[in-house]
Amino acid sequence: MHGLINRAVQCFLRDMYGPDLWLRVVQDAGLPFDSFEPMLRYDTSLTDGVIASAARILNRPREALLEDLGHYLVSHHNLEALRRLLRFGGVSFGDFLNSLEDLPGRGRLAVPDLNLPDLVLQDRGDQIYALSCRFALPGVGHVMLGLLRAMADDYGALVLLDHDGMVAGVEVISIHLADSSHTPGRRFDLAAPVG
Amino acid sequence: MDGTISDRVASLDRVALDWLMPMHLALSATGHITSAGSTLVKMLPGQRLIGRGIFDVFDLRRPGGVTTAEGLMARAGQRLLLHPKGCPDDGLRGVAMPMADGQGLLINLSFGIGVIDAVRRHALTEADFAATDLTVELLYLVEAKTAVMEELKGLNLRLQGAKIAAEEQALTDPLTGLRNRRAADLQLDLLFAGRRAFSVMQMDLDFFKAVNDSLGHAAGDHVLRAVARVLREQTRAEDCVARIGGDEFLIIFPGLSDPALLRQIANRIIGQISRPIGFEGQDCRVSASIGMGLSTQYVSPQSHRMLHDLDAALYAAKRAGREQAMMVDTSVQGAQGK
């Protein structure tokens, strides 16, 4: 698992629950270091272990924790750069949905050895979509659910989301785009803010 | 012109043309603007473009020497570089092609490498670019690259910090925090290789063994730390103070070439060290003997020679009754006089 992903999990736990919780997770998961390096690669079992330890210590279901992680990736001010990169996906939430299949390609454009979930979007008509997610990390659908929820807020869209479970290693999320301009959403300028 | 142009495959209305090419300019045969793409209009606010001559609105930087519509027509298909007058920072690249039936020229423009700045300067949005334009992907890539570079910079800083800490550790005596022998050797190598004058003291504690034997190693360690404090106080930040053995110290003074000053420093150090050092209610009494020398005492200073002479001077100081400093004697065998 790429260090960027591990680092994201680490920053999520640290920013949301404090540095002490992170150190407890490090101990509980038996990590041989106290911080992931974002540009190195790690065995996926370490990522699994960190998530399992955090869920145990926080006494939260793994699915709920992963969904919070997805939400954090878009909404936390420390990760404004990531939110911006995602917003390059399209002018509206609908555009953004349709750009999701490009996500792994966009990731590799920036970091050639970065593996992101394989995503397939099915348009079922009447603003109903199904997003299939496949990744080395089980539960990635819940991360995507949280991420989509936060992106919908970002675009100002009103969206109903459901995790429909996993079949043959593929997690499916159903998406109902009820209103693509429910609120003005958050501002996005093509030009990056200076400084 | 080649066949495809005169075949007249496309005839577009204004809106369709603007949708396909939001940075186009259509020119009449006389070189007057008949249509301008919406992004160009946005770039040049307050300017009326329609009806004006192309050369009144733009400087054609390349190809040079073209000042008429006919000249532009003759350059059809060539790469153009234009700057809007009043926006010297916006270099636009483009290409011009004649329209059918002598209706003039169609020029399609795009931002060159300055696109990032142009997007900011003119507050452009995705709607300002053609659907086929990769500018937004380029902007994405620039931001992604910046984010990745930030991460790499962080990694490098952490590695650099770890490297400095490891190097520091490798050159430090853990008991006293002074430099160690390795650090002193490195410093001497540098000084012997250079031309700057320097002085060196080799110092041994007197009666240290007695403190160790009678009061224990904890007292001995305490004495060594107290001595280290004296040495740090009596030297400058650029001097190298090293513990090179149990109770042996080497002090290197880059730039010091005055024997009187060197002796003064040595006497101060000995005076300070000879004061009783309290440890758990007991007084530890040690003193110090010093052999010292200056690089200027040698025609061509060599490390092994000078260290040998320092050793001899230190031995002489001990033999003369301890608690004193002895200058390297260049007249005795071993020293190589000037």
In N-to-C order, the SSE pattern of chain A is HHHHHHHEEHEE
Q: Give the spatial strand order of the biggest sheet of chain B.
A: 2-1-6-5-4-3
What distance separates the N and C termini of chain B? Answer: 91 Å
Helix content of chain A: 40-55%
Characterize the overall form of chain B: rod-shaped
Count of individual beta strands of chain B? 13
* Secondary-structure element string of chain B: HHEEHHEHEEEHHHEHHEEHEEEHE
Roughly what fraction of the amino acids of chain B lie in strands?
A: 15-25%
Largest sheet of chain B: 6 strands, antiparallel
Helix residue percentage of chain B: 40-55%
Total helices of chain B: the number is 12
Tally of DSSP β-strands of chain A: 4
**What gross morphology of chain A would you assign?**
globular
Detail the poorly predicted runs of chain A: none
Helix count of chain A, per DSSP? 8
Radius of gyration of chain B (CA) equals 41 Å
Features:
heterodimer, A: 195 residues, alpha+beta, four-stranded antiparallel sheet, 8 helices, 48% helix, 17% strand, globular, B: 338 residues, six-stranded antiparallel sheet, five-stranded mixed sheet, 12 helices, rod-shaped, disordered C terminus
What's the short version?
The complex is a heterodimer of chains A (about 200) and B (about 350). Chain A has helices at about 5-15, 20-30, 45-60, 60-75, 80-85, 95-100, 105-110, 140-155; strands spanning about 120-125, 130-135, 160-165, 170-180. By secondary structure, chain A is an alpha+beta fold.
Detail the topology: elements first, then pairings.
The complex is a heterodimer of chains A (195) and B (338).
Chain A: H1 3-17, H2 19-29, H3 44-58, H4 62-75, H5 80-87, H6 93-99, H7 103-110, E1 118-123, E2 128-134, H8 140-155, E3 158-167, E4 170-179
Antiparallel strand pairs in A: 1-2, 2-4, 3-4
Helix pairs in contact in A: 1-2, 1-3, 2-3, 4-8
Chain B: H1 3-6, H2 14-20, E1 24-27, E2 33-36, H3 38-43, H4 54-57, E3 58-62, H5 69-74, E4 79-84, E5 92-98, E6 105-111, H6 115-121, H7 135-170, H8 181-193, E7 198-206, H9 208-215, H10 217-233, E8 240-243, E9 248-254, H11 259-273, E10 277-279, E11 282-284, E12 287-294, H12 303-319, E13 325-327
Parallel strand pairs in B: 12-13
Antiparallel strand pairs in B: 1-2, 1-6, 3-4, 4-5, 5-6, 7-9, 7-12, 8-9, 10-11
